[in-house]
Amino acid sequence: MSLGQELAPHLPFLRRYARALTGSQAHGDAFVRATLEAIVAAPGDFPRDVDPRLGLYRTFHAIWSSANVEEEPGHVDPDQPESIAQARLARITPLSRQALLLTAMEGFTPEDAGYLIGASAGEVESLVAEALAEIERQTRADVLIIEDEPIIAMDIETIVRDLGHNVTGVAVTRDEAVSQALAKRPGLVLADIQLADDSSGIDAVKDILGEFQVPVIFITAFPERLLTGERPEPTFLITKPFQRSTVKAAIAQALFFDTATVPA
Fold first, then answer.
1. Which terminus of the chain is more solvent-facing, meaning fewer CB atoms within 10 Å of its CB: N or C?
2. How far, in Å, CA of 115 to CA of 102, rounded?
3. Is the separation of the CB atoms in 60 and 33 below 8 Å?
């Protein structure tokens, strides 16, 4: 099997990670593209002593680290997620965010995450704890949950409330979701794809975004259906069955880029 064939199954998830890290599909994809160009240009430099997925993310991090130059936060433009993120970067280091995303969202062990960012497993765990504490302190939001499975909806609602957020409602159909969103505008939407009446959570989100902008986290058993590269893709995507830590990390990151929760 060629190196390209080994890496292909991991690319949609690297793109997901890159978007969550940068807050932008365009910027995230640019870093992934640069990573692939670096591998093609020097295939002999690709780390072959580790799992191909680890090697891919390691190469990505080398590109990201070399290009990620921190600047002093200035005026926050509510239409630019990167500007919003910069306001938060004054309070939380990129290394902590990387540790959080790699372990909670991408499923790497603290040891593997440490390999990727050049830290020990213990340091990774400390970075994750610091990131969660700081982001949760900075961000509070009203949350709309779109989920037709009662047990899953209750679990998500508990997670959201435990993080200090308010749940505005739980919708089980497209029409109900749109109605609730218009009745009380949420600061975050958590949406399943397949809903109770065979309607689509994707369509519900499109309808809501047609009225106002709000960060969205999709929850699905088939993430590859939304990671095709053929249309605008969700920045935040959770795979079912999910870990509570994954949902917490996604919520923290989604609100990290949201203008409504910019720190004072």
1. C
2. 11
3. no
Give CA 246 to chain center in angstroms.
9
Render pLDDT for 142-189 as a digit per residue (tens, 0 to 9).
999 999 999 999 999 999 999 889 999 999 999 999 999 999 999 999
Residue 77's pLDDT band, with cuts at 50, 70 and 90, is low
Q: Which pTM value belongs to this model?
A: 0.57
Cα-based distances in Å from 216 to 126, 167, 206, 210, 219: 28, 14, 10, 13, 10
Q: Give the per-residue SS3 of the chain.
A: CCHHHHHHHHHHHHHHHHHHHHCCHHHHHHHHHHHHHHHHHCHHHCCCCCCHHHHHHHHHHHHHHHHCCCCCCCCCCCCCHHHHHHHHHCCCCHHHHHHHHHHHHCCCCHHHHHHHHCCCHHHHHHHHHHHHHHHHHHCCCEEEEECCCHHHHHHHHHHHHHCCCEEEEEECCHHHHHHHHHHCCCCEEEEECECCCCCEHHHHHHHHHCCCCCCEEEEECCHHHHCCCCCCCCCEEEECCCCHHHHHHHHHHHHHCCHHHCCC
Could you tell me the two tokens for 131? 């990131």
Copy the structure tokens of residue 196.
């109770």
